[in-house]
# Entry
Amino acid sequence: MTLQTPRFAMLADLAKETTSEGRRELLRKVTEAFDPAMAGNDLAQFDDVLATVAADYSKQVRSQIARLIASSLSPFSHTAQRFAMDDIEVARPILEHSEALTDDTLLQVVGQKSQDHMMAVTRRRRISEAVSHALVERGNDAVVTSLLGNEKAEIGSEAYGLVAKRAETSPALQAPLVRRAGVPMELLNGLYMKVEADLRREIIGKFESVPPEELEAAFQRSRAKVSQHYKQPDDFDAAKRRVDEMQRKGALIPPALVTLMREGPAGRTAFKIAFARLTDVEYDVIERAVEGQDLDTMALLCRGSQFDRALYVSLAVALDHSDRAMDGAQEFGKLYESVPVQAAQRAIRFWKIRAAA
# Structure
């Protein structure tokens, strides 16, 4: 390519200059050459020349030019794409701010470059669903957390599902996911039993405030999901026959749960089956709550199924093996009362849907 103006010649001269003072002076002149009004053929030629010679610049010079390009209103597309694949010190301002980058370039960065490069991408003013999905697939927890914190990022339902799955075993992702607006409610419901008490309260708060049409859409999406089934205990069939007989005789009522719980190991499977049937949720939900001594979920189930306070307290005292169990009746009662009835009913409706499916 012929360098047609002194401005273009300076770009080549900058690569040839060996003294620090000379580079600083040339860089100053190159900076002045970034004319906001430059457009059309002049801009295209300047961009092409800069992209060609930039590889010969030192990292320090490339970093300084990258900052100029990132803040420029002119689309230095060729140079921006080259710098986006550079060392992170050069790439960061381009990845975070340049409007000249296409999705194809961003996907190439995510697919080939470092976690630091991906972190820079998460800070962009606009991020498409395709780029967000790639970041979720390849990014570490810090990258995904940063993405979730970017309110402008477009995140699709499939990517949210991947994050929710990871969040089950990665506490670092739980709060950012729960607190992000627009996360599908069925995913938050599925995460409920995996998170700590403060995040459970936030999930319940979302169930209270979500518009009915959004909630109904979430219910419809939840119908298609396949639940995880736990291995049935050896006495499952016998316990199920016992509960079937109780139901036939009209004895399958909420107070019967206390009797079954007090039988200890001999009645434990029958207790779980009876609890699942009385709350109309899948057995897996009860399995996780009982074996995990998850009193929050137990309170939600009892509150949403309109079991009375005393019944829940009795179950909680029998289930809790900590030192507080015998003296914690008042605490358990407060836990039960802290669960809003409507929110509890909305939450367990997902478990009811999956049980029906």
